[in-house]
Amino acid sequence: MERDGDKIRSAAHLLDTGGIVAFPTETVYGLGCVAEPEAIARLDRVKGRPPDKRYTLHVGDKEDVRRYVPRPGPKARKLISRAWPGPVTIVFSLNDNDLAEQKRVLSPGAFSVLYSGGTIGIRCIDNYIGRALLRQAAGPIVAPSANRSGQRPATRSDEVLSMFDGQIPMVLAGEGPVAMSGQSSTVVKVSDSKIETLRPGVVSDNDIASMSEIRILFVCTGNTCRSPMAAGLSRKLLSEKLNCGVDGLESMGYIVMSCGLAASESAGASPNAVAVCKEAGVDISGHLSKPLHCEEVRRSDYIFGMTQQHVDAVRRCCPEAASKCGALDDTNDIADPISGDKDAYRKCAEQIEKALKKRLGEIWDENRRSK
Predict the structure, then answer these.
(1) Spatial contact of 134 and 172, defined as CB atoms under 8 Å apart
(2) How far apart are CA 1 and CA 34, in angstroms?
(3) Is 90 exceeded by the pLDDT of residue 301?
(4) Interatomic CA distance for residues 254 and 271, integer angstroms
(5) Contact 359, 216 (CB under 8 A)
(6) Predicted confidence band at 1 (pLDDT cuts at 50, 70, 90)?
(7) CB–CB of 94/76 below 8 Å?
(8) Fold held by 214-368
(9) What CATH number was assigned to the domain covering residues 2-203?
(10) Contact 27, 92 (CB under 8 A)
(11) Cα 63–65–68 angle (5° rounding)?
(12) β-bridge partners, 259
């Protein structure tokens, strides 16, 4: 292991000083170099690749993505958490403010290499040798597949040596009990509203859609008033943000649910809840109540209780989901309007909508999240 560590440190030094190092991933060998124009030009010559082609940034840990994409959206964060480390390359689009921030923290050469067109492609590989190398290297490292342009990528160190005879100063061998797949990583471009496959690969489109799905769950007591109102209003706000119809949310990968701690099965929403939501342009007339099931809690990404008591009950039911659960309104409980008139329901809906706007904003920008 110590000898492996010495080799990895030597390889990292080569990368940091502008050299090219071949290293293993879980799919094929990669040719790594630091993200600077001079090193990229050398890599282009070795691969016989046109200079206008872009290369993917490789990171050793998925948390490193924040060094290059300061504010990934919720679908991107979900995909990162589920797909990395692994054979998925994610292309992120950065807004002008984030690009300006990256321009300040990176060298001019690295910025020009990594952010052409305002986007950046990043992959976190699932190979302990390759990841150890990326952790050791000081600069950002890009890595195309180890092959000359138009040829099949190498999956063994001897293939790399044969293909690039004398042109690569170091190859980190990575053969072991688990063979490389030889398939390309799946390349996807992610935005708030969709995930677009740019290159099919190891991971299927269906799996990508499943791994990036966002599930929001609202919890109250009977699931006939507050939580269905919250779910309906949330769908409206989400559809406005994503510029789509409410019926299109699920196809975009946003699932909004509600349930009750003491709910019966398939009871309708209360008439006043239906009427007040209708005034706000929200149709919950087809709602059917559901009791809380721990499996739904586990599957959800964000769980909001109408009161702190609801939150505490969900956490007791499913302790492993505690970090995903919080009160919808972090300043006041949302009181049950069940015995009140329509004005009581309107007041409840207003409180819910105000809290939703804050919480959905926090979902899009985790830096704003309430503690």
Answers:
(1) no
(2) 25
(3) yes
(4) 27
(5) no
(6) very low
(7) no
(8) Rossmann fold (3.40.50)
(9) 3.90.870.10
(10) no
(11) 140
(12) 219
